[in-house]
Amino acid sequence: MSKLPEMLTIGQVAERSGVPHTALRFYEERGLIASERTAGNQRRYPRHVLRRLAFIRTAQRVGLSLEDVHAALATLPDNRTPTKADWSRLSQSWQAELDARIDALHRLRDRLTSCIGCGCLSLRSCLLHNLDDQQAADGPGAPKLKPAVEGGT
Ligand code: FES
Q1: Where do the HTH merR-type domain residues begin and end (predicted)?
Q2: CATH code for 7-93?
Q3: 27-49, pLDDT tens digit by residue?
Q4: Where are the domains of the chain?
């Protein structure tokens, strides 16, 4: 197996990482990865971008947003590629958020049982459609419509 060059074309990065060209350009636009340009304005990525991409894809796979990933990468000195220790530290910091998401999904699943085969999507009785009864604090009826109705507009 031949050794990878220090700088990689977008095609080489796509092939090695399994990340499509379009996603690579998107990540670059979002500041998640960086490239240099050749005299002919072609992208060249440093070889360590492959580890950074593995970090990004793994974080996404566990449900983290690109904003979460960007924030995590921004904590690294000189925007360096995450090390094993970085991954360990950052993944621990995400555990509480992931636990909260899992709990929320469990609650949704439990509420779904009453909706199966129903289809009413009632604001009054459907626990999924009106999750946590979001307008309850504003009183009965349709509080968002009250100013328009009362003001005659
Ligand atoms: S759809 Fe009828 S209770 Fe949820």
Answers
A1: 7-75
A2: 1.10.1660.10
A3: 999 999 999 999 999 999 999 99
A4: 7-93, 97-150
